[in-house]
Design goal:
mainly alpha; 0% strand; 78 residues; single chain; 3 helices; globular
Length: 78
């Protein structure tokens, strides 16, 4: 399979997993929050498979995940 397809599959799975705990939360704007969470996690999975930076895969995943999740964490105060 191509990296694009692998990234899309990984991003979709990661996005769906991030939605599961949100079903049980009582928050304002739940639909927007769930959409934003899905696309944020989708982007992480997609980018990890489609970038070459010359480091081990687990380190690349951790670095990309941290960099792409940090803005949302700062905004939400978590």
């Amino acid at each position: 399979m191509s990296n694009i397809l692998n990234g899309a599959i990984a991003g979709t799975i990661f996005g769906i997993v991030s939605l599961i705990p949100m079903f049980f939360l009582e928050i304002d704007g739940k639909g927007k929050a769930m959409t934003a969470s899905f696309f944020n996690r989708f982007a992480i999975g997609f980018v990890i498979f489609n970038m070459e930076i010359g480091i081990t895969e687990w380190l690349k995943g951790g670095l990309v995940g941290l960099v792409l999740s940090l803005p949302a964490a700062i905004i939400s105060g978590k």
